[in-house]
Amino acid sequence: MLCTTASAARLPGLAPRALLLAALLALPLAAACTPEEAAEDVQTDDLGTDAYAERMASEHAGDSPVPGAAGEAEDGVEVTTERVTYARVGGEELTGYLARPAGGAPAPGLIVIHEWWGLNENIEAMARMLAQQGYTALAVDLYGETAQTPERARELTQSVDEAAARDNLRQAYRYLDQEAGAPRVGVIGWCFGGGWSLKTALMLPGELDAAVVYYGQLITDRAELAKLETPLLGIFGAEDQGIPVTGVRELERVLADLGKDAEIHVYEGAGHAFANPSGERYEPEAARDAWQRTLAFLAEHLEP
Q: How far is the CA of 207 from the CAs of 26, 182, 277, in angstroms?
């Protein structure tokens, strides 16, 4: 099932005559575009690392993470937290942040993938909030450090080795499945982590039970998306210039054509990183609605 927020355009529902009229009306606008603008408009697929880093640097220009701004949920179960070694990649042990309901009983697991800032206080707070809702949340580390400036975040994004990151996330799944005894496992990520959430769902199609992508780098290739077996929730902002809405609509269209179990929500007036209360682009109303949709989606697919 695919759906959008009430404010989103619903082009798939237009009659053929209306689609033709819309196309004709768009011709003058297309003719007025420069070649560079036109290329930007139709760019809907997976970007290279450097191009993606450039876009994110533009979106986060002048931004900085604010320690402690994420806050905590006011309701939910008591949680315990600890640093755990969940993987070994390239001979090095990898440490993540584990938050889970107190009491020790097995709970559904979530791989939590950080934004381009790294595994910082905001992501730890999100892991605790997910644990308060009854999940064992393992916040992984794909950097090995956290960034305080967009410049450093860009460098860290570009330095990620694809094969090592995939190995990292496979072992994170294994930790939740075997060590934590999670009966079901999902993945969630924001920004940089949102793109990796989608990649993880494609990488582990038979293992993961849910995937949540917050304004992550897109993959719209039909052959790649055909591999998706995991129910998917996509959260995006209509004003996001780093993840253009044209690409989001293409993702939505391809998933619909393939008959995938997916929900795509686009929030009007919201830009990139709108759900991050520790950043400077936070949109509280959209973030609250997205969070409630996220919890409902996870409950549907991860809880018994």
A: 43, 12, 31
Average pLDDT for 25-48: 39
pLDDT in tens, 118-159: 999 999 999 999 999 999 999 999 999 999 999 999 999 999
pTM for the structure as a whole? 0.83
Per the document, the length of the chain is 304
Separation in Å, CA 176 to CA 67, 96, 131, 140, 304: 28, 12, 13, 11, 17
Q: Which residue has the tokens 């253009």?
A: 244
CB 277 within 8 A of CB 291: no
Half-sphere exposure of 245 (CA within 13 A, CB side): 16
Q: 13 CB contacts (<8 Å, ≥6 apart)?
A: none
Lookup: tokens for 109: 């697991």
- Half-sphere exposure at residue 150, Cβ-oriented, CA atoms within 13 angstroms: 14
Helix pair angle (162-174, 192-203), 10° resolution:
70
